Each structure stands twice: as C-alpha cells, then as structure tokens.
Amino acid sequence: MTTLVEVARHAGVSKSTVSNVIQGRVTVAETTRRKVELAIRETGYRPNAIARSLRARTSHSIGMIVPDLNNPFHAALSVAVERAAKQHGYATLIAHTDCAPDIETEVSRALFERRVDAVVIAGLSTGSAMPTSLLDNGIPVVLASFGGLSDGRLGFVDLDDAAAMEAVVEHLFGLGHRSFAFVSQSYAEQSGERRRQGFEQALARRALSAVSREEATAIMAHNDLLALGLIDEIERGGRTVPFDVSVTGHDDIPLAAHSRIRLTTVRSDAQFMGQRAVELALRAVQAGGHVAHREIHTNPLVIRHSTGAAPR
Amino acid sequence: MTTLVEVARHAGVSKSTVSNVIQGRVTVAETTRRKVELAIRETGYRPNAIARSLRARTSHSIGMIVPDLNNPFHAALSVAVERAAKQHGYATLIAHTDCAPDIETEVSRALFERRVDAVVIAGLSTGSAMPTSLLDNGIPVVLASFGGLSDGRLGFVDLDDAAAMEAVVEHLFGLGHRSFAFVSQSYAEQSGERRRQGFEQALARRALSAVSREEATAIMAHNDLLALGLIDEIERGGRTVPFDVSVTGHDDIPLAAHSRIRLTTVRSDAQFMGQRAVELALRAVQAGGHVAHREIHTNPLVIRHSTGAAPR
DNA sequence: TTGAAAGCGTTACCAG
DNA sequence: CTGGTAACGCTTTCAA
C-alpha cells in the first residue's frame, strides 16, 4: 500500500510538499506540483483516511442507527441519509438495534469508539439511554421520526403524531366506526408509544376508548408494515378489509399505494427527513456543538381503500 | 475525550501498562490491574478505534455495497451482513450505487481510502470495474447473488439462476403458456442479465423465443419488487393476474407471501447469504489473502397464485 | 511486572 | 515555496 512518503520519494520531494499539493491549501510551484501529481498517478496512491482522521480528529463518518432495515420506511430513511452523507464526503456506518436495549448499548459504544462525527437515529426503544450516552460523549445526535424525549441538545426531525392520529380517527369516525384498536410493534419503540397516545387522546375527545383487536371494526397500526401484516392476518382469518374491518398504517411506504393493497395511511417523506437529518447533524459538527433544534412536520392523511364504512 | 495517557496518569502507571490491561495479553499484577480498571471507569475511557486501526493496520470494518436498499431483498441481505459483521466485532460501512458506474467508482474509492478490510457486494452494473479495482488494492471481495464475473480472486455466494429460470419456465409451460417475456431493472444489473440468459435458454429448449411484454401471457421479472410493480401496472390497466397474465418474481421477499399478493417466485435466503458472505470475507481477511471461493446455491421455486393456466 | 521509545500515515507549524 | 519536525492515540518490542 503506497503511502505519502513513498510518493514523496518517488517525486524527489518531501512529504510535506506532497501533502501540500494534495490539500491544495498552500501554493506550490507549478513544476513541483506536476512532478508530485505524476508520482501520485504512477504509484496509484490513495490517502489513508484513517491516518487522516487520527490527525484531524474527525472521522468524516456518521452513524445511522436503525431498528430494522427490513422496514421499508427505515430503509428509505437510510438511503436518504447515506446519499446525503456521501454528498458531503461522509461515510455512513450502519447499525441495527431491533430496539433491544442491550444492542443499543453495544451499538452506541461501537460507534463512539469509531469516533463517528454524528449519529442519526431512526428509532429507539422506549426509555433508551442511547441518545444521552452519545450526547454526553460530545456526539451530536438527531432523531428522525421518533417519540417523546426532551434533551435540549438533541436534534429532531419530528412528526406531529398527535395530529396525524387525530386525522385518522376523524376519518374513521366519519365512516361510522366506534370500536377502535391500536397495534404497535412487537418490540417497544418510542414512536409507537407516542402514536398510541395520540390515538387514545383522539378517542377520548370523542368519549371513546380503545377496544381489543378482535372487537374493533377499525384497527390502526403503528406503521405500514404492521398494517400489511394485519390485513394478511385478517383476511387469512376469513374476514375482509375494508368490509369487515378497516385498517390504517403510518409512513406511506411505496407498497401502500399498490393496487392490491391501497392502504389508507399517513404519509411521511423519508427522503426529505433523512436528508434534513444529515443537514442538521453536519451543521452541528461544523459548529462544534450539538444540534439543539426541533422541527415538527405535520403529515397528510392519505385515504385509500383499506378503510370503509363501519359494518353494521 | 479521555485518552490512554490520561488514564495512565490517573492510575499512576505508564500508558503501556494501561494498554496491557486492556489487551489482556500480558500478565499484569493484580493490584496494578485494579488501579487501572478503576481509572478507566472513573475517567469513562473508551479506546479510540481510529488510532488503534492506524497502528494495527486493520480497520475492523467491512464495506457493504448495495444497488438500492429500497429493494427488500437487498435490505435483508444488508441486515444479515451487518449482524454477522457486528458479531465478529466489525463495523459495516454501507454504500449505494444505483448500479451507476460513476457512483460505483466513487464508492469503491471511498471504501478503499477508509481501508475497509473487505467488501461484500449485493449487485453490480454490468461490466463493472469495481471488483477488480478493489481486488487489485488487496481488498477481499465477495459477491452475493450476482452475475457473470470470473476473477479467480473473488468470492461468490452465488445462485443457480439458469436452473431457477428453467424451473419457472417449466412451471409456466406446464400451465399452457407459450408467450413469455422477461423484464429487468431499469438500471443494468449483472444478475438481471444472467437471469435473462437463463430465461432465454429455457425458452430455446422449447423452441420458443421471447415476445414483448404486451403480447406475453407470462411475464417473468428479474426480482420480486419488479414483479409487484408489474402486477400493479397490469391490474391498473384492467387486466388481472393470474387470469389474463401470469407473473413471477425472484427472491421471495416477505411480502411475496402476503395474502393479497401470493407471488410465485424463486426463494433466496438473504439471511443465509449475507451471513455466509461475511464468513468468507472475514476468513480471507484472517488468512491475509483473497476469498477465491465460489459456491452456488440452487433455490426452490415457490408456487403461489400469481401464476395460473394460460388464457385461451 | 513495568515502562521508554519507536512508529502507524497524516497534517500543520515554522524555519530556511 | 519547500522541508523538518512534532503531534494525533494507540500497540509493541525491548530493557530494566
């Protein structure tokens, strides 16, 4: 593996000079520059980012923490994050947690040891210690699409889940439904909890309260993936959606619009959120501080055909 | 950020000693060990993996190159890769390419500069220079689920696409179909090409040749995501699957089994493939060489309800 | 059993 | 404009 020194030797100059032409920050004589550039090409030299990081005390990498990439919404978010990061010259270290606290601990330790410059988190176990631990180590973190935390140092690209759930309940209520249930992830994710709260408040506002999944004529899922699973389960059980029971999701993953699915859901723009999260994170890195910024986006209800009039 | 030296000062020993207790490779007196461990805890010290990497000349990270994480199969593969890597103490750097040659170049450069110890590739543009370029730089690479390359240094966790396509065609032929079409990705991916070849051979064996999408009564998609899109398009156009046209996919993503979809497809075990790819890659890293190993898995046809008797 | 020192590949500060 | 030198934080001989 060729190093700077070898290039220098090859060009008959000092390593400082080679470094200078690479950085392009210092003026170097046209002729020497040419010699050096030639040497670089001839040796096929590629800078060692690790050495550079050590010296510069910045890894030019960010961590992406995601409960489960198999969830298309998380995948879309990750795609956006990686793209944006790459655009800024940052690499993306990805890590799953399954929303399991012990994996979260392990993962945030690993990312910290690798000195990621920032991390964006797509989902958290409820009561997770991860953000604080990262923050305390001086790493800016931004939460994309998440639940109820309140550390002032955090960055948020947040969703107005309460408003969304209100809109969903209103839609269903207008369709005549009076028996509602909410279903969330098998693992405990913060955003799931917050949506559930929004759901319950919307119900309370109408003097209703949640019933069991079996009794409900309308079931709201924490996300689209769950909603898809629900439809599958319901229809395998012999009932049909939306005639016997209405189902809604959350996220508007691409498949939700499929003609065989047509899921009523709340749209979130993963593309935008991921990009925005990186923007906030890198801005904080540059400023040498934390993000300390919250923005809340309110997402539209997308009405399709998984919801219909309440059966009577 | 606390460093080794600070821990050493804190404990009143030399940094070598601290390093020794951390590595645990050298015997160190019980009492000093205790002092050091205390100091580590008190200072909240976390080793700097970057410094460690520079010294050890190994980054303990692998690169995962993926055309598009929005494809559930790629996502599943990535999940498996990340999990396996994590288990071995390796971090995963993820990078998308969209199968665009210029992005591939950029991405492999970035991974090389970051000195990833190995890379696993989920998909490649046809005629991609990426594998060779990586290989030439001494980085072991393994291709998971891919097309027709033949560098002896490569590792392959490969699929028998020809056999798979033969099985699909046989199934459809038995159902009475005589007009077949194949559809692949908008971008040029190697594995797509190979499946198309398998498809055409299977046709030739029956003295048939491919027809246009519009004329076909059976359409084979390069992967499930495409097949889903196809079903959507066909049914929005007023025809129905499988009554007017049969559709098959490839991969068996979780949604393929959904009661609303029931896609006939070829199953690949992303979980297994990802894990195996990492295994091969890390084994090569340890041995200090290339993978130079090819294994071919033959995948079963899963018959569901997107295929039916040919219309007459 | 412990510590001093060299060095991994860079960058940055200063002299020359 | 160029080059020597000292870090960056760690591991690893090698002596003591």
Task: Summarize the topology.
The structure is a homodimer of 312-residue chains.
Chain A: H1 4-11, H2 15-23, H3 30-43, H4 49-56, E1 61-66, H5 72-87, E2 91-96, H6 101-113, E3 118-121, H7 130-136, E4 141-144, E5 155-159, H8 161-174, E6 180-183, H9 190-204, E7 218-221, H10 224-236, E8 246-248, E9 265-266, H11 270-287, E10 293-297, E11 301-302
Parallel strand pairs in A: 1-2, 1-3, 3-4, 4-5, 5-10, 6-7, 7-8
Antiparallel strand pairs in A: 9-11
The first copy, chain A, binds a DNA duplex (16 and 16 nucleotides) through helix 2 and helix 4.
What are the key terms here?
homodimer; 312 residues; alpha/beta; 434 Repressor (Amino-terminal Domain); Rossmann fold; six-stranded parallel β-sheet; three-stranded parallel β-sheet; 11 strands; DNA-binding
What does this structure look like?
2 copies of one chain form a homodimer. Chain A has 312 residues and is of the alpha/beta class. In chain A, the strands form 3 sheets. In chain A, strands 2-1-3-4-5-10 form a 6-stranded parallel sheet, with helices on both faces. The model of chain A has no long low-confidence stretch (mean pLDDT 95). The first copy, chain A, contains 11 helices and 11 strands. Helix content of chain A is 43%, strand content 14%. Chain A is elongated and about 90 Å long. Chain A folds into 3 domains: 4-47, lambda repressor-like DNA-binding domains (434 Repressor (Amino-terminal Domain)), CATH 1.10.260; 59-159 and 269-297, Rossmann fold (3-Layer(aba) Sandwich); 161-268, Rossmann fold. In chain A, helix 1 packs across helix 3 (30-43). The longest helix of chain A has 18 residues, at 270-287. The termini of chain A are far apart. At the A-B interface, helix 4, helix 5, strand 2, helix 6 and helix 10 of A face helix 4, helix 5, strand 2, helix 6 and helix 10 of B. Strand 2 (91-96) of chain A pairs antiparallel with strand 2 of chain B, so a sheet runs across the interface. Chain A binds a DNA duplex (16 and 16 nucleotides) through residues 3-5, 13-17, 19-20, 23, 26-29, 32, 47-48, 50-57.
